[in-house]
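Contributing new records

If you add data, match the layout below exactly. Sequence lines come first and carry their own label; structure lines follow with theirs. Keep one chain per record. Anything else will be rejected by the validation script.
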Amino acid sequence: MNKFRMLYTKKQILTNDEMAVLSESYLCKVRIEGLKFWKAYPLDKRRNDWFLWTVINRPNYFNKVDQQFDIPAKTEWANIFPELKANYLYAMQQLPDKDQSFRNKAWFEVSELNSDLRQQKFIYQITGIKNDLTGYALRIIELAKQDRGTDFFQPLQMCGDIIITNAKYMGYTNDEIFVFLKQLMDANIGQLTEWADAKSDLLHLKESPLALSFKTFDNKWIDINQLKGKVILIDFWATWCSNCLEYMPVIQKAYKAYHEKGFEVLSLSINKISEREKVLTAERRLNVTWPLGIIGDEKLKTDIWRKFKFSSVPQLILLDKNGMLIENNGGLMNETALNNLIKQALDIP
């Protein structure tokens, strides 16, 4: 474990494939050793912590180098998983605090769904096999019905976001996604209906242009309607978001490569206005040379978050020359995919 952490902190010395293999070997090792602990100490409550962890951080049982699956290991886990899950949920039911018992069960089921979706994305990319979206819709609906005012709806919403933002990389067409969203809306469950309706609005940006305007730090008014003819990347971020900061150099590289050919970047921080100095410090450190604004305390941020039901940052939106949606998040968080989409939109061979 220590060796893994040491190499992980120095990930810049490893290729993506090397990192994938290293991460996979670590997850497999934790699962194997944890299973031994589970069997050896049936009364130790720490085994429940391990089980939840390994469900959330499941290995895919693959070798990235030759893209081969360890079928026996995957099958063995699939065979014992139902019993482990039943034992875990039974342990959760025995908690004296029934509200906590319900919450733990709901959190587990949401975490399991999240993990299933991330694994399905990987499996589709390797094998081309995809799951029926109706099954996922039914799982989300059943979980949404359980909500008793707890705080697990946002993680459930993020499960839906995995499907929406990675649809292309999970093998789903826009038509399939709209059917999926309609199933969720037809369930008529408060927050879930609102979320599905908002995501439908987001996808409809592929048919009608986004309207967005804001004021930059240096009091320049930016209106994307005035940027027609440009390919635009809108980057919603925050100074406390490590993924946002790590990805900013990737955006910067793309900006330098394609700006003169018609590519623009608009970075909108959701920090509070009172945190202006933090944002300016990050801007200087990251050498941001494109329009930057803060929308944290403004109606603009509230309207955007409510309209499209964004749940976290980063949120990336790539618009074509007519201001219509090309892609949001998903592949935009991959440098190669981002560059390919920009070049396609700019008609660069």
